[in-house]
């Protein structure tokens, strides 16, 4: 009987080609997990870098706000110390009023001092014709419900002020201004005196904007699982 390989030589050729094809394709299949691990490692590094950037940006914004309070370099320690004697002395000096206003902005309560300043300006009106438009603006900005800079007033004080606005006089906002003044004196003023920017002024220091410090991060073994060095860029 004749050799089957001689009768059907194509069978042997086909088998040889299949084996050769398998040998060529097999390494390609093995490389897929390596590519996936490299991609995963790169994504981890990118996410970590993004988180650090966002954290430093947020920290920089916060430090910038506090640093702005110490820009009053012309204020002497003696002058700053007088601000601590009474709330009146703080507001009576332009530099003190400016520093306190900036401090309230860091606490998101600047509407209180802005209302107080508006009332002080209102009481300086020289004619009755000036009173009505100023009173209307103050009421719509700080007093009425859902005003853009509504101050915290009790119901009775708000009602009295709303009635007085119909025929405004010099004393129209006195009750409301007194309430807001007492609130700042008893609440915000003590915190201002304890704040670092004010204490720096008293000590004669003006550090300006603090330098940013890069936050360190402790890496664990899990962060490097499946990560292999990539020497392709060397």
UniProtKB/TrEMBL annotation:
Coiled coil segments of this chain: none
BP term (GO), one: negative regulation of signal transduction
One Pfam family named in its UniProt record: RGS
Cited Gene3D superfamilies: 1.10.196.10, Regulator of G-protein Signalling 4, domain 2
Superkingdom: Eukaryota
Keywords, ordered alphabetically: Signal transduction inhibitor
Stretches assigned to the RGS domain: 86-202
PANTHER family, per the entry: REGULATOR OF G PROTEIN SIGNALING, REGULATOR OF G-PROTEIN SIGNALING 18
Entry protein name: RGS18 protein
